[in-house]
Each structure stands twice: as structure tokens, then as C-alpha cells.
Predict the structure of histidine kinase.
Amino acid sequence: MSMDSNPLSAGAAPNPSAVPPPVLPSRPSAKRGKLWSRFTRRIQAIPLSTKLVTCIIVLLTIGTIGISFSIRTLVGNYLLQKTDTQLLNQAQLIFNSMDSLGSDSGDDGRSLMNTYYVEVRDSEYRSTGVASVPMLRDGVVSEPSLPADGSIDGVTLGQPFTTRAVVHVTTSRNPDHAIMQEAQSPWRVVALPWSEKTRGGQVKDSGIVFIGLSLSDQIDTANTLTRFCAMVGIAVVLIGVILGTILVQGTLAPLKRIEKTAAKIAAGDLSQRVPDLPENTEVGSLSVSLNTMLARIEESFHAQEETTEKMKRFVSDASHELRTPLAAIHGYAELYKMQRDMPGALERADESIAHIEASSARMTVLVEDLLSLARLDEGRGIDITQQVKLTSVVKDAADDLHALDPERGISCGRVVLQPGTDLDNPTKLAFLKGDMPQIVLKGDASRLRQVVTNIVGNIHRYTPTDSPVEISMGVLPASISPESLSRMPSNEQSLHHLIEAIEVGLSMQVGMNYAIVRFSDHGPGVPPEARSKIFERFYTADPSRARQKGGTGLGMAIAQSVVKAHHGFICASGSDGTGLTLTVVLPVAPVEPKPRPAPPEDGHRNEKRNRKAKK
């Protein structure tokens, strides 16, 4: 009888005044959530290579176990089916040869030569004696466990069944483990009806016979096959782990290099690039994307540095340029105050006012140029939808230069592409004297006139009045888009790239038609290393000389901003001999493809039709 641990059942009276302590509600879901988040964090902390190798091990292990189990099951079922077939096919033969089996058996029916167990029962299911019992070595006897004498409960005639073994040791020697294990193997038994007839055909006697075969051989075969599958499976898993580790390490090696490259980039080295791999792979596509991104980041970073440096220099130069006229105004105003009570103050006052007026005019021009640049940087103050007669603008600028320098020789002509003869004489743009072509394009007429005026003004200020000038125009096709053209830096390398695009455009008749305007002087020129700097703001090769000539250092910067706003290109290059050539390129219209000539067959048919029409 069990004891009850409940105090109420033991006769203890409950205390109504006792208040049970409050039970705090447990939150198992919150605990499970914390445990799950901690587990996922630990899983995420495992390296990717370890995860992949672990997955390979798990998959190979599950696969080998599944295959081994399937093979064992299939072979076991096949062997059992073969045993059943053998029992059913050999049953009549064994029953008919029971007399010969009995002659090989001992007094108790045990046989050393027979592998079949045979037991005969009469019509009342009582045993008439064991006809044959196989005997193993060392006196070990194994018999199937059959229904009790006089009963066949649970047995269906003609249907084999499996039953356990009953082991007997008939000698005093201890049998070895292998013999006992074989003897303890289950039996496969089938119960079949039998009958004995007289010569007249009447049934003399009848009953059932149990015929059985030990499954020790089948079990031994299945166990041997299982051990073989286990060894092969272990070898497959080990080889798979080794090959998988090598493959995973080799596959993840590019990612390791990407990781090291990213670490160097994070340390500040933006010139690093990921090694190139085939783009049809995931890592190769990733490396291409990363290299493209890194190139843009480096370009943006350098552009930002350059912009910051230009801004600092611009602010410094603007402050310096504005300080000069302001200092002059302030100085002459102070000088006027000091000398206004002296004799001849009126003449000196006129001189001071003239200097003040000149300084204020210079400051006004400078401020207007600064405002113009600021508007252009913001994309304002320009309208490129107007129809501009570029030839008239350039001719007016040539007339202005002739009016400023009557002694200067000014030649007008066309721009042509002069092919090179060898590597030392590459293809270049050349001047061909003659009439300028009539060119009309869309743009801002006042801004383009400002560009040409600034170029002509520089020629007037910085070259001798007797040095000749060639002004040429032309329209040439180039296989480059205006957007790409406007992004090119203003240097001679970009000009060579443009000339190559012109060669392709002329040969293939593709791309965009561009108006090219060139101004070539034969003055002192500009050193090659400083030609790209003339488009920087406030840059002057000789600041004192520029100030004497009235230059602010913003003319070429304004010209570059206007040209780029028109999706064009401007650069400075050396002229033949001495001097400087400024090239302005502006888009006109897309190249119209040449019409294809009619096929010869169509022409022949048309000619026949014309002849028929004449007849």
C-alpha cells in the first residue's frame, strides 16, 4: 500500500487564515527566446568553412547510414524470400525422404548431415516424433520453438513464419561463442498438411508436418554485409571530409583574399583591388562588382580631395584678388584725406579717384566672374536650347581681335584630320586655309560668345601683337557620346583619345557629329605640365603680368564650365613650333547612316522594267 504525502489526507485540518504566498508567473517563452537567440549567436559565430565541412560530414554520414540500412533491409528481405521459396519447394521432397533422413539420425532424431528440422504431427496435432533435428558441433542442438503439443495456435498452414530457437547442449564440453551464437539464430518454419493413402485410394492417416531452416547463414550474411558497408561508409566519410575540406578551403580562398583586401582598404589604402576571377562564378562576379565599386570610391575620394583643395585655393585666391583692389581703394582714399589740404589737392584728388574707379571696376569684373562661375556650378544661368550660328560667333571674335591688334596676322580656315605616317607622327587635327564652314547647333549664344571672347582676350593679352593666329572650324564625326566627352579631363591625352574616336567615326560613319573650333597662336606658349592648369580658377602663369593686363584668372575656368554645360570638351595643346592651341569641341547632331546600295538583282530588274516601259 502506498503512502500519501498530502497532509490533508493524513488528517491535518486546513488553516483558513493562512494566505498562500503569491506565485510569480513564469515566462517560459521568454526563456526559450533567450536560449534560442544565444544558440543562434553561437551558430553565427562559427566560421563559414567550419559550417560547410560540418554539413559535408553530416550529409555523408546520413547518406552512408541510409544506404547501409537500405542495403541490409533489401538483402535481408531477399534472403528471407529465398528461404521461404526453398522451404516450400523442398517440402514435398523432404517429407518423402523422411525415411532416409531418419537413417542418418540418432535414436532421438538428431542428424549431423541434415540442415532441415522436420517434425510430424497427426490429425490431432500431437507429435508423432521428430523426424530430423540438425546438430551443430560440440553437441549443440538448436530447435525451433513450435506451438505446444496438440495445438497449432497462431500458425497458418502453408505460410512460413519466424520463431525463436531453443538450444540444448548434449555434451559436457563448453561450446565456443560462435557455435552458441549460430545456434541461437531464429528459425524459419512452414507448416504443411500431409496424408497417407491406401492402395484403394482411401486416406489411411493424415496430419501436419513442420519443416524449418535456421536463419543463421542469412543473419551472418547480413551482418557481414553491414560490417562491410560500415567500413566503406567510414572510408567514404573520411575521404569526403578530406576532399571537402580541401575544396572548401580552395573555394573560400578568394573570399579570404577579398577579406584581406577589404582590411587594407579599411586601413586607408584605396588603391587595393580584389584579384580578378572568371565572371561566370559567384566570387568572380562579386570581385568585379567590388573592383568597380572600389574604383568609383577611389575616384570619388580623389575628386573630393581635389575639390577640397581647389576650394581652399579658390577661397585663398579670391580673398587675395579681392584684397588687392580693396587695399588700393582704401589706400587712395587715405591718401586723398592726407593731401586734401595741401596745394594742388584737386589734381591729386582726380588721380586718386581715377585709381579708386579702376580698382572698383576690377573688383566688379572679378565679382561678376565669381557669380557667373557659381551659377554655372549650380547649373543656372545657361540655356542650351537656342539655335546658335557658331560661324558668326567665331568670325565676330576674329574681327574683335583684329580691331584690338591691327598688326596681327589672322588666318581663318577649316579643321581637318591629318593622318600620321608612323608612330612618331600620329594622326592629328590640322589647319587648312580657306573659308569657314557654316555650322549651326543648339546652345546658349551669349555663353558661347563669352567662351570665344575669353580665348581671344587671352591671345590679345599674353601674346605679342605681331604674332600670327590661325582660327579654324570644322565638323567631324566621333564614336563617343557627348556625356563621355564632357567627363574627360581637359588635357592632351583626352585630345588623343578624341582623335582616335574621330578616326573610328570617319571609317564607320557612326557616333555623333561634333563642331571643332581651334585657336592657334605663336606666342610664348605654356609649358606642357601647366597646360591643363590654365582651366583652374585664378591660375595665371605670371600673376603680376596678368594683373597688369587686367586678367582675373577666371576666363578659362568660365570657358570650361560653359563648354561642359554644352556636353562638350575643351583643352590646351602645343602649336607647331611655339605657341598654344585651344580646341573647343561641341556636339551638333548624330551621324546619319549611309543608305545601303540597292542589290544588283533589284537594279537588273529595274533596268528590265524601264526597257519594257520604253517599248
